[in-house]
Amino acid sequence: MIAPSPLQRPVPRGLSAAMKTLHLSPLDPDFVQNPYAAYAMARADGPVLFWQDYGMYAAFDAATVQALLRDRRLGREVPQGARAPYPAHLSDWASMESHSMLELEPPRHTRLRGLVLRAFTSRRIAALLPDIQEITAELLAGLPDDPFDLIPAYCTELPVRIIARLLGVPEQMSPDLLRWSNAMVAMYQAGRTRAIEDAANTATTEFMDFLRGYVEQRRNDPRDDLITSLIAAEEDGAKLDPDELIGTCILLLNAGHEATVHSMGNAVKCLIEHQTGFAALAPDRIAATVEELLRYDPPLHMFTRYAYEDVELGGITLKKGDEIALMLGAAAHDPAMYKNPGHFDPVRLAKPHSVFGGGLHFCVGAPLARMELNVALPALFAHLPNLKLAEKPRYAMSYHFHKLDQLIIAPQ
Ligand code: HEM
Which of 134, 202, 142, 86 is nearest to 376 (CA)? Predict the structure, then answer.
């Protein structure tokens, strides 16, 4: 899913000499550590620029990003004429992508999303609260006394086990799910190489093989889980084909933890660095604090759209077939929308943000991610009231994912 790695692409036909061009490598360590400073400069110059390193337009302001996410003249699905065949070494990857709702537009997107939403009801999500609390308590009880990396021990474990439980995949599969997912999402990060592509394709093959076998095993074993609903839809024939069933499970299992893990890591870092008081984590305040944490340091910074017809954008024409990056991380720091955006303010008056996207592809898992953060953050700080950073955290070289390499904390 998500954004392409930077490539040298042909300059779009509509690009006039007057169009401002941004030269900014997503592999620049300073940018990766603090993308917001570069976003502010780009926004002041744009807000829509041609980003040379990606070979596409990019929008850095909240108004344009929010409008284009909802604009049906644009979409995620690669337009017919622009589809380059995938190389043979990415055949399983390509097959999985072609059945993922995230890469599709109506009518297939509508059908797949509808099926997922029917199973992904607010009742089913709300019913996960005791599971989230139980796993959180179990993880906290097992944390060491000496400094340790909170990302694998806590931030990763909770979302991966919850999404496995929701789908109905054995939680003992978590290490495999993580391994496959990590190899697959590397496809969306800057600096993609042949080795990364090979590893992603192998992970996809293994993931598909596992799911095919597991679905067969579960056909005669219906339970109250998402996989049972999806199998029923597939058996109906008209609703879901076998490849779509597998593609949907992979999308949900991967998307169901990746961003939540990173938002939890970024949130804990922010709360410790700002010495945020316990009051901000109190039951009546935590929801607002979580929204501000997501806005302040979101885990996913860039999603792209294709123009399906010519689109006027304040003096720029996106030509049919052009691609534009919607800079979610930049939009979250737009001073036109959020006063003093670089300031973490847990009592900030809530304003809409695009951290979960918007429009047709709005994140299916937003209520689940919010619930996990709402439980896991207060529980962590209540359990370890003297929590400190033991090492300066660094963001991983994995743009557009904005995630920490590690988060070494001292519990005492
Ligand atoms: C803090 C955590 C999360 C963040 C920041 C996040 C962010 C996003 C964003 C920005 C999109 C839209 C992409 C676009 O418009 O191009 C999206 C889509 C999606 N997300 Fe999430 N997500 C999170 C957690 C989850 C969880 C827990 C799930 C669980 C299943 C999930 C499942 C999905 C799915 C299935 C889509 C595709 C929706 C579609 O194409 O209609 N996400 N997410």
Answer: 134
